[in-house]
Fold:
Amino acid sequence: GLNKYHPLIIMTFLEKIANSYLNSDILLNDDSTARIIYTNTNHLTRPVVQLYDETIIKLEERPDLYIQAII
Structure:
């Protein structure tokens, strides 16, 4: 598995994937829609999102919320 590859290469690859979703529209598990505005390299699966009412949410601080779908 992952032991075959240098960790720096794996992290760079994962960061590139996460960054490719910047400005993507998403659906959160509470049925609200938002846009990904920032990816945190320490929490790649918990980006900062902006709801359409301009509210900004740091998903790393909201364990009750998660991305349900890219729309």
